[in-house]
Design a protein that fits this description.
The chain has 271 residues and is α/β, with parallel strands linked by helices. The protein is 39% helix and 15% strand. A hairpin with a 2-residue loop joins strand 1 (19-22) and strand 2. It is globular, with a radius of gyration of 25 Å. The two termini are 40 Å apart.
């Protein structure tokens, strides 16, 4: 065995000098601050940059979860509806989203959307006009969007992940209309959570056969063919243009909810 040269021998760090504990954290040497946490809390002087630091953000994140849980805890059966904010109020998709939300409201479901314009507005409007509960979960964006006027319960979030938790926790089904990247994100997150057993299995329904058909063909012809998903994973999705069929799918899933087997875990494909 070769004897290491002196410069290769690890040197014990110099622990001499100031040491201070900051809650569960130990600070030494140059990391020790001259003032205490209480002193900095009670001192009104100095910069206000601390409100933008990560520890403070944790409290803001906690507050968003507390507000969301508190506002939605008594919501009852609900369906989250996603789709493009750019959908025109004069389009057929807007009318379909309104009709679907109204049908869901008449069946006793609250309707949850992102609270913005387009498909979100259509769904909130349909639920509102049918006498149902219309929920909007807004998000802070670089451009103004705002909560649409048809929302009964509106919550604005700073953080996408807190908002996404509310969509998943308080909905028994997802309905996805044509949309862009944000809609894709919500769709595939829902599928991933169901596929991996992170949430109790619930229906994910795509509305718009012409829009979504190409995506599903690619999943079958490429993703499934190469073994990146299992054949049973495709059963997690339903595709239709029929409002009544969407309601039937959700009602059927809800009626068999308590008898449903636990979600399966799909192990990675060995190569």
């Amino acid at each position: 065995m070769t004897t290491p040269e002196p410069h290769d021998v690890p040197r014990r760090p110099d622990v001499e000098g100031p040491t201070r504990t900051k809650g569960p954290v130990t600070l030494r040497r140059s990391q020790v601050m001259r003032s205490t946490t209480d002193q900095r809390l009670l001192d009104t002087r100095g910069p206000s940059d601390w409100v933008h630091t990560d520890p403070w953000r944790v409290l803001r994140i906690q507050a968003e979860f507390v507000e969301g849980f508190g506002a939605l805890a008594g919501l009852g059966p609900a369906v989250s509806i996603f789709g493009s904010a750019r959908t025109s109020p004069t389009s057929a998709e807007y009318a379909t989203a309104m009709n679907l939300a109204a049908a869901l409201a008449r069946s006793g479901y609250a309707v949850v959307t992102g609270g913005g314009p387009g498909i979100m507005e259509a769904a909130n409007r349909g639920a509102f006009e049918a006498g149902g509960v219309s929920v909007g979960l807004g998000i802070e964006l670089p451009f103004e969007q705002g909560m649409n006027q048809w929302v009964d319960i509106g919550i604005d979030f700073r953080y996408f992940f807190a908002r996404k938790t509310m969509f998943v926790k308080y909905a028994q089904a997802f309905v996805v209309f044509p949309g862009g990247f944000g809609t894709f994100d919500e769709l595939f997150e829902a599928l991933t959570l169901v596929q991996t057993g992170k949430v109790t299995s619930f229906p994910v329904v795509l509305v718009g056969t012409a829009y979504w058909g190409g995506l599903l063909e690619w999943v079958r012809g490429t993703v499934l063919a190469e073994g990146k998903v299992s054949a049973k994973d495709l059963d997690l999705l339903a595709l239709t243009d029929d409002v009544d069929e969407v309601v039937r799918i959700i009602d059927g899933a809800m009626s068999g909810h308590h008898d449903a087997p636990p979600p399966e875990w799909y192990p990675p494909v060995e190569v």
